[in-house]
Hints:
Blueprint: E1 2-6, H1 10-21, E2 25-29, E3 41-44, E4 47-50, E5 56-57, H2 61-69, E6 76-78, E7 82-87, E8 90-95, H3 99-105, H4 111-129, H5 149-156, H6 159-174, H7 183-192, E9 198-201, H8 206-212, E10 217-219, E11 224-229, E12 234-240, E13 243-249, E14 251-254, H9 258-264, H10 269-277, E15 279-281, E16 284-291, E17 301-303, E18 312-317, E19 331-337, H11 339-345, H12 350-364, E20 374-380, E21 385-387, H13 392-401, E22 408-410, H14 420-443
Helix pairs in contact: 1-8, 1-14, 2-14, 4-7, 5-6, 5-7, 9-10, 10-13
This protein binds flavin-adenine dinucleotide.
Amino acid sequence: MKAIVVGAGLAGSSAAFTLARAGFQVKIIESTGQIGGRASTVSKNGYLIDTGCSATTSAYTSYMALAHEAGVGDLIVPASPCVGIVRGNKVFEIDTRHMVRDGLFGGFLSLGAKLGLIRLVRDVAVAKSKGMLDFSDMSKAAPIDNESVADYAQREFSAEINDHFFDPLVRPMLLANSHLVSKVEFFSLLANYLDAEMSSMRGGQQSFAQLLAKDVAIELNSPVSAVRRDAEGVAVSWSGPAGDITERADACVVACHLDNAVDICAEYRSLLQPLRDSMRYTRAISVAIGSPVRVPGQSFVVFLPYCEEPHMATLFLEHNKCDDRAPAGHSLFTAYLEAEASEASWGKSDDDIVAQALDYLCRLYPMLRGQVDMAHVKRWEKALPLMKVGGYSEVARLHASIDPAARIQFAGDYLSGAGQNTAVDYGVKAAKNLIAHHRVHQRS
Length: 444
Ligand SMILES: Cc1cc2nc3c(=O)[nH]c(=O)nc-3n(C[C@H](O)[C@H](O)[C@H](O)COP(=O)(O)OP(=O)(O)OC[C@H]3O[C@@H](n4cnc5c(N)ncnc54)[C@H](O)[C@@H]3O)c2cc1C
């Protein structure tokens, strides 16, 4: 059996690895010049910069399981257990192993606001007990996907709670402010990740996709223009360095962004289009800044409330994430601009974007002034699938309509809560559907 995988991101490389392990002859067709998609790591001046996805968690069960199956589980290393949250240009550090102690006695929320959070715990517990907060299938949350995080906060809590607690926690998830993000994403974060251990892959986040795809044939710089079914299987057309090619295969995994999938799979357009209409890919800009000065503190991520810093959604201190990201004694920061700020800054020069990020960093860490030895800017045209409020009912409808026995399967992070785990999970699921179909096919 021969399978073609469209897209070499985490979804595509996970599908390709799983199919190859099951004995399929596999070829990946990728439009860009590299493997990894939004898992991208750049090496510069001794720093290792994750320009796209940055961290994993112990709750990423599919990602962890595949890493172990591929023999690279020991490359996943825990990040510092500390996180920071900013209030008044000061970083309050919380040790996540003592979340209740540090959270309750830390000075970033008033006592009244802290007591109000009991209602949040109740709402999340009720949704979880009804099975609605399954990260591997967030379509189960469709019945409560009815308001944004900001609207929920305003209805049930206070502006203070939204500004200093909900918003800074939500912004790193989809690099978007709380009025753009559905309440169910926030509930899922609290239900699935609050007590999880954060981690990253030694060598950079991109290396996982590269390791998964290392024994598989791959055509780079080859955008696929059509995937069609025919009597014997599938026909995949692309335009690559060797010209326009159409290759036949028994099966195909389409593992690109949803809008590309809609464009290239004409027969599936009516099935995929309603979900495409219910979400949009945000733009994001990431700015990495390296310094020979090691700043104080153990936090590997700093949560930034909009009211403190409207442009940056979050800040990673990469040297506290994994020791191979910065030379010894140095600091490496990655600032991720929020979706609307990324739109507004899209046309600015890299120098201006770095200067703006550095200006804010120096307010938090004044010792960085005049102490920068590396900067790198990455613009993501299609960063994260941002579901409209109510969009998870379309995810549910799509899940119900996809035939697991079909020769064309879909994979990608738009099929549940966005992130590396969903990409891996649905890549493996798409491959397993083809493997199961192949076995049925052989018996008949
Ligand atoms: C700035 C940023 C920060 C993030 N931070 C985190 C994080 O900390 N934790 C986390 O879990 N997730 C994070 N994510 C999300 C995570 O990176 C993605 O969810 C995941 O990598 C998506 O994988 P994928 O395979 O579904 O898609 P992609 O990685 O986008 O792969 C799709 C591939 O398909 C290719 N392609 C598209 N069209 C075609 C075509 N026509 N023909 C051939 N190939 C095509 C693309 O070039 C791409 O390589 C972040 C994302 C960004 C952008």
